[in-house]
Amino acid sequence: xxxxxxxxxxxxxxxxxxxxxxxxxxxxxxxxxxxxxxxxxxxxxxxxxxxxxxxxxx
Length: 58
Fold this sequence. Notes:
This protein is mostly beta strands. The chain has strands at residues 2-10, 13-17, 23-25, 31-33, 50-54.
């Protein structure tokens, strides 16, 4: 599964904000990448930028 959205931080916790306004809390079970496919670390440096998350689906 691959999902695009904007990285936001609320109370220090990372979330993916979807186009419809829904927030998905991010944790270590997700692979987080920039739009070029490069893995990124969840920190304020990427806040407000478009990112991609991937999660393995069983």
